């Protein structure tokens, strides 16, 4: 493990947090969660792990800011309570599992765990980008019925969103390759480093949409006659239960899908390498 020292680590974590604060990517709670996740991953996983987290952060921040004033994007974000500024639980749902895997890896440094981590990072990057860019697409379809659905609705996918999600997970694969080469991580071949996160992230994000279309709890605003993820609609009306499982929020779905991404990546590595 390359050690850049504690001081530079603290600087790096604070630098990312200040970018998030300055561009209003995270709420105060979101910044707190990001600090906890960032420090845990740096502490237990080391620089290779931390730089992958930083790649996710920089890639997804860029796309969150991309056309943020677009009417379609604003509308979808307001309606479905995701994207844009992220709070404590949104960051926590995306980061908790990654931090946990880093802690386990510290005591049990298996490559399989490293790939599980790559799978998580690829999935959350793919999901974030697919949402941020997918809401800009002209048409979206519900993954379960292939019927037209509002952009930004959980479970709605668009061709652009799918393409972006594939691109996003492959970006994490390429980052993994570059970071590993720089730090001379031995024993992992380049093709696996690029391809495994690409596949895991794409399917992890797809499972995210699938769960969004099925088990995620959705409410309905009787006044506006619209489905929403909010228990109180933007118009101020208290919404009623519409579908899904009680308590399964968008955050729950994000956590579960990153687990799926982790299992796909670990499984692929295990199948290819055997340990
Ligand atoms: Zn309403």
Descriptive report:
The chain has 275 residues and is mostly helical. The protein has one domain (6-273). Helices cover 66% and strands 7% of the residues. It has helices at 6-22, 28-45, 47-65, 71-80, 88-107, 111-134, 159-183, 190-214, 250-273; strands spanning 140-142, 148-149, 156-157, 218-221, 226-228, 240-243. Strands 2-1-3 form a three-stranded antiparallel sheet. A three-stranded antiparallel sheet has the order 5-4-6, with no helix packed on it. A hairpin with a 5-residue loop joins β1 and β2. α3 (47-65) runs parallel beside α6 and α5 (88-107) packs parallel to α9. The longest helix has 25 residues, at 159-183. It is globular, with a radius of gyration of 18 Å. It starts with 5 loop residues before the first helix and ends with a helix. Bound molecules: zinc ion. Residues 221, 223-224, 233, 235, 237 line the site of zinc ion.
Could you outline the blueprint of secondary structure elements for this entry?
Layout: H1 6-22, H2 28-45, H3 47-65, H4 71-80, H5 88-107, H6 111-134, E1 140-142, E2 148-149, E3 156-157, H7 159-183, H8 190-214, E4 218-221, E5 226-228, E6 240-243, H9 250-273
Antiparallel strand pairs: 1-2, 1-3, 4-5, 4-6
Helix pairs in contact: 1-2, 2-3, 2-5, 3-6, 3-7, 5-6, 5-9, 6-7, 6-8, 6-9, 7-8, 8-9
Can you describe this structure in just a few lines?
By secondary structure, this protein is mainly alpha-helical.
């Amino acid at each position: 493990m390359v050690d850049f020292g504690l001081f530079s680590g603290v600087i790096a974590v604070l630098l990312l947090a200040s970018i998030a604060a300055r561009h209003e990517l995270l709420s105060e709670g979101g910044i707190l969660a990001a600090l906890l996740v960032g420090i845990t991953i740096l502490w237990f996983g080391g620089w290779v792990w931390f730089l992958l987290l930083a790649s996710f952060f920089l890639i997804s921040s860029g796309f969150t800011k991309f056309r943020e004033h677009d009417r379609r994007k604003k509308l979808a974000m307001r309606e479905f309570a995701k994207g844009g500024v992220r709070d404590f639980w949104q960051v926590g749902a995306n980061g908790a599992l990654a931090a946990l895997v880093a802690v386990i890896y510290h005591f049990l440094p298996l490559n399989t765990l490293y790939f599980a981590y790559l799978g998580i990072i690829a999935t959350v990057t793919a999901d974030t980008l697919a949402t941020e860019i997918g809401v800009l697409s002209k048409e979206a379809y519900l993954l379960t019925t292939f019927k037209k659905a509002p952009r930004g609705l959980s479970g709605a996918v668009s061709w652009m969103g799918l393409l972006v999600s594939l691109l996003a997970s492959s970006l994490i694969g390429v980052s993994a390759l570059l970071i590993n080469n720089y730090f001379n991580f031995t024993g992992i071949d380049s093709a696996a480093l690029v391809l495994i996160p690409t596949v895991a992230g794409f399917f992890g994000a797809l499972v995210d949409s699938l769960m969004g279309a099925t088990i995620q709890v959705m409410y309905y605003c009787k006044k506006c006659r619209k489905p929403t993820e909010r228990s109180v609609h933007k118009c101020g009306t208290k919404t009623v239960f519409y579908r899904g499982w009680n308590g399964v929020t968008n955050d729950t779905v994000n956590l579960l899908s990153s687990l799926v991404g982790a299992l796909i990546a670990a499984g692929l590595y295990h199948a290819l390498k055997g340990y």
